[in-house]
Model the fold of this input.
Amino acid sequence: MKYKIVLSLFLFIVVFISSSMNSFAQRGGGGGKGGGGKKQQQSPASSYAGNIGRLAYIQKYGLPNYYENLTNPLVGSDSDFAQGRSLYNLHCANCHGLKGQGDGPSAQYYANVSDLGRTLALPYASEQYLYWVIAEGSGQFSGDMPRFLKSEDQARASSDLINSNQIWQVILYIQDFKKLPNRGYFDE
Done:
């Protein structure tokens, strides 16, 4: 009980700081006159809030019902793996890096881009969890990762959205990141 109270208080503080920092940045604070045209870095609290919020949700409720019973319909063929690599390079590598280490060129603009090899080493990082993260992003938890699942009514609305089968292909590809040396939490 005491742990839940402390965690709740911590989450409240992180979300409060995140919203305060974002509000401050939107009013032009901290960057001179509009930041001189440079893209402003995101508040560290913003990304951490997304990761902590998702973890707190998982611990309290588990995966959302829709996601907990999903199964990957793909068998892991070479073509699915290659397509997953292509989709990852197009949609994910800019932040997560080519090897999933959270070191892509855009990672500098976000406080907490996940090292996917480390994420995959966590006990709750099932295929269903990965699907949920990719499909919905972390916006509902005040994080920076966008949602990627294209709904039926968004058939051609955005080139940044991918369909369900493509999400499974990306998952097949990124699961290899946990096989790289010195990537899991317990092998250092």
Observations:
- The mean pLDDT is 73.
- Residues 2-26 form the longest helix (25 residues).
- Helices lie at 2-26, 44-61, 65-68, 78-91, 93-96, 116-120, 127-136, 164-174.
- The CA atoms of residues 71 and 80 lie 15 Å apart.
